[in-house]
Every structure is written in structure tokens, then in C-alpha cells.
Amino acid sequence: MTTLGFTGGRLDRADPLRHDPAGFAAALADPAARLLVLDDYQPVMDGGRLGWTAIDVDATPEDHVLLGIEDGVPHFARLTGEPAVGRSFEMIAALHALEAGEAATYAAARSVLDWHARHGFCAKCGAATAPFRAGWGRHCPVCGTEHFPRVDPVVIMIAEHDGRALLGRQPAFPPGRYSALAGFLEPGESIEEAVARELFEEAGVRVRHVRYIASQPWPFPSSLMIACVAEAVDDRLTIDTTELEDAIWVSRDEVRAALAGDGSRFGVPPSYAIAHTLLEAWAK
Fold first, then answer.
1. Does residue 245 or residue 88 have the better pLDDT?
2. Angle, alpha carbons 213-151-120 (nearest 5°)
3. Which end of the chain is more exposed for a tag (fewer CB within 10 A), N or C?
4. Pairing of the two strands 73-78 and 34-36
5. Are 179 and 173 in contact (CB under 8 A)?
């Protein structure tokens, strides 16, 4: 099984510095400190790795997020005023090239910067908020409410029946690609319940015996993908065409061929997506 994309980060997130404004300012002023180079949220590569540069001498703590520390060197990202929009072909190519730990650093930076750009006002009173805790929160000066970056849990799952896996296709997918079905958890719902609900809503499949496989951060914009496999009661499909363009049952041999790129009747998600890992785990 391949290493899960966007995991394996090497930076120490340095939680004590988040609660130490003076220490955070000193880290930002450290001559060795490094700033992540981004171009409209896209990583600027340096020899196949993330690009880093020196911190401006006039940099202010309020404009920066402490990503973490590695080998005693603090690493930062600069806040931007605009939220992230989509993924370019160049970004997809960069994600394929990045090492696991590098991709994890990028995922954290992209998610938290995008959160800041989208949450500049207090959800309680509407006043403008300001960053605090080394960029890992926003504080409302009017009502005192503290806001923190959110992570949205998403279940992504395969239903299996008689040695076959259920895969679906959305219209936005590249031609021929199929993937595991997925959906957001709702309030008051367990992971197992969300898996069962989403499979029934999207494909009309009743399932039982849900088992967890793995999880992965997904920074588009900020989700936690929770991969599962469930046993289908039967293989009858009733597709919700507002969610899926098509759904098919595929054998392990077909999944193995698709993963190997051996001319299967369908294509699989990229290796950095947890759907790829889920298919690998199921096809063993």
C-alpha cells in the first residue's frame, strides 16, 4: 500500500509557541526562519521540493502562520486576503512530485491560510477578527469569541458484494475515472451511520459490517477523509443522478489492472488520493 498522501509531516507544530506571543515574534525574527513560497496557493517548487525563502525584515506576526519547526528552524506561511479557488494542472503535477512529508506541510499551510481568508468576521457578532495563537486562531475584539480552523469529516467508502467493489463516477471526473463513493458526515451521526447513509442515498445500496481502513487530510479546502469498506446486502443499484453519473461493480482483478495501468475498463484516482489507497487495500 502506498504512503497516504498529505501525511507524514516532519514539522514539529510547536504548540507552546502558539501560546507565547513573544516567542512567536522571536521565531519570526530568527535569521534562519523560512517562509513557504506560494503562488496563489500553488506550491512553488525548488528542485522537486517545496520552495522556501527568507522572512522579510519588516514581517509582522499578525500576517504569518507558524507551520512548525524542523531541526531548530521555524517555518512560516504568509496570510493572503483571498480564498483558494480550485486546483490547476500545475498544482496537480506538483502534488504528484512532492514527497509525503512535503505534501503534508503544504496541506496544512493551504488549509489554514484558506480558512483565514474565509473567516475574517466573527460568526457570533459579525465584527472583524484578528489572528492569534501564531496564526492558528482568530479572536473577536468585540465579544471575545475565539475561532479556530475547522476540519470537515468526510466518509469515503467501498461497498463490497460477492467479491466485487462498488465504484462511482461523477461528471467532473476525467474521462473513464471511477472512484469510491464519498460524503460529509452530518451532525449527530457516527462514521458507520454516515457510510451506510451515503451508500444508500447515492447508489441505493444497503450495507452492514462497516470497517475502518485509514484516514487522510484533504486540503481542498480542509477535510479529513475517513476510508471504510462495508458489506452490501445485495448488488441492486438505484443511482442518484444528481450525485453520480454512473456506478459499477468491479472485481479484484479489474481493480488490480486499473491500479497497474494495464488497460482496465476504468481509471483510478491519483496516488495521493485516499481513494487510491482504499482500492489498493481492498484489492489485496
1. 245
2. 165
3. C
4. parallel
5. yes
* Amino acid symbol at 246: D
Q: Say which residues have a Cβ less than 8 Å from residue 194's Cβ, sequence separation at least 6.
A: 155, 183, 184, 185, 186
Three cell numbers, residue 83:
480564498
Q: 204 forms bridges with which residues in the sheet?
A: none
Distance between CA atoms of residues 156 and 195, nearest Å: 8
The predicted model gives 236-247 an average pLDDT of 97
In three-state secondary structure terms, 20 is coil
Smallest CA-to-CA distance from 149 within 125, 117, 116, 107 is with 116
| Residue 2 pLDDT grade (very low, low, confident, very high; cuts 50, 70, 90) | low
Which residues are within 8 A (CB) of 11 and not within 5 positions of it... i.e. 6 or more apart?
67, 68, 69, 70, 75, 105, 108
CA 264 remoteness from chain centre? 28
**Strand partners for 34:** 54, 75
Q: Which three cell numbers stand for residue 193?
A: 451511520
H helices present in 30-125, as ranges: 89-97, 100-118
pLDDT tens-place string over residues 38-85: 999 999 999 889 999 999 999 999 999 999 999 999 999 999 989 998
C-alpha–C-alpha distance, residues 18 and 27, integer Å: 11
Q: Residue 47 in contact with residue 37, Cβ under 8 Å?
A: no
Q: How far is CA 221 from CA 47, 68, 109, in A?
A: 26, 20, 11
Give the 3-state secondary structure of residue 147.
strand
Long-range contacts of 120-127 (CB under 8 A, 24+ apart): 122/147, 123/147
